[in-house]
């Protein structure tokens, strides 16, 4: 902000810090995290000012609004708490060690669901699925599974999409997504229909910075990552692969800039959310029981 002009107010929504200050001629505001504060920006006709009000100060409630909210909340909670399936195994959605550092059984389950749903919507030409581990937000313990469990795993309402990439683009995407290993990263790919190995003894070398990003393309795609197969066939960097993902990674989110142009050119939105894909796959394919086939990760990803 010190190096730009013409910006009156800058609102930061993802740093988890509390800021209310002027940077040059620009008001910088950030409300912190977890709804702890309400940010207020005021304009008096000449200047902007800001302040943070701790949410705890809002102790009162409007009786009419509270009654409306409570009535709707009770109905929603009844729907979300409905048990529709069971799992015989604990499904690991923890951050680390977990979905941000390695293949997990929940990552396999979720990726299988995304791939299956894409095939139902688009066709069997969809041969693989990639979803970012950072989008998986919770584990599922053995026992009953409710609708709320699925929405807790995938809470963002992201959609199942498909698009076509070259093998080289897929390799670049996976190389970039595993750049931080052995440290954790929300970009870490959970996959279906893809088998690959990451050699963390090889340093990730930054290439050019991706546009409008803080992440770097790999200078040498394939130096750390080896893709053994896609869709059950030997990997070919010149082949075309139709894959499934979520709309966030497909549009270039996290480190997945290599997907952005292919998605823009060939993307199809199935209209099915990730959580609904999990529900559909569990009921229609697994018969409502997540069984021993998902007791352990299935050997799709090797990190060494």
From TrEMBL:
Keywords assigned by UniProt, alphabetized: Hydrolase, Nucleotide-binding
Nucleotide-binding is among the record's keywords: yes
Molecular function GO terms recorded: hydrolase activity; nucleotide binding
Sequence ranges assigned to domain 5'-Nucleotidase C-terminal in this UniProt record: 85-260
Keyword Hydrolase (UniProt): yes
A Gene Ontology biological process term: nucleotide catabolic process
InterPro entries in UniProt: 5'-Nucleotdase_C, 5'-Nucleotdase_C_sf, 5_nucleotidase/apyrase, Metallo-depent_PP-like
Similarity comment text for this entry: Belongs to the 5'-nucleotidase family.
Name of the protein in question: 5'-nucleotidase C-terminal domain-containing protein
Species in which this protein is naturally found: Candidatus Ornithocaccomicrobium faecavium
Lineage: Bacteria, Bacillati, Bacillota, Clostridia, Candidatus Ornithocaccomicrobium
């Amino acid at each position: 902000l010190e190096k730009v002009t013409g910006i009156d107010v800058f609102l930061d929504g993802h740093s988890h810090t509390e800021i209310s200050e002027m940077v040059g001629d620009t008001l910088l505001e950030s409300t912190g995290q977890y709804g702890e504060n309400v940010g207020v920006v005021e304009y008096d006709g000449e200047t902007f000012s800001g302040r943070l009000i701790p949410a705890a100060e809002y102790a009162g409630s409007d009786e009419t609004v509270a009654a409306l909210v409570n009535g709707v909340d009770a109905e929603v909670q009844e729907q979300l708490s409905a048990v529709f399936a069971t799992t015989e195994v604990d499904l690991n959605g923890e951050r680390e060690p977990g979905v941000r550092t390695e293949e997990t059984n929940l990552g396999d389950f979720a990726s299988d669901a995304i791939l299956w749903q894409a095939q139902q919507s688009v066709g069997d030409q969809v041969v693989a699925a990639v979803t970012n581990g950072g989008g998986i937000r919770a584990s599922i313990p053995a026992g009953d599974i409710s609708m709320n469990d699925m929405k807790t795993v995938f809470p963002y309402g992201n959609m199942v999409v498909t698009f076509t990439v070259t093998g080289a683009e897929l390799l670049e995407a996976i190389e970039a997504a595993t750049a931080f290993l052995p440290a954790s990263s929300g970009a870490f790919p959970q996959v279906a229909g893809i088998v690959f190995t990451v050699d963390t003894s090889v340093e990730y070398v930054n290439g050019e910075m991706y546009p409008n990003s803080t992440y770097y393309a790999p200078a040498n795609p394939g130096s750390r990552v080896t893709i053994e197969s896609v869709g059950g066939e030997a990997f070919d960097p010149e082949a075309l692969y139709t894959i499934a993902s979520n709309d966030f990674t497909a549009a270039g989110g996290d480190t997945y800039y290599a997907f952005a142009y292919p998605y823009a050119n060939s993307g199809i939105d199935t209209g099915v959310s990730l959580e609904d894909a999990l529900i559909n796959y569990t009921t229609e394919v697994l018969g409502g029981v997540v069984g021993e086939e998902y007791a352990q990760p299935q050997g799709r990803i090797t990190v060494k």
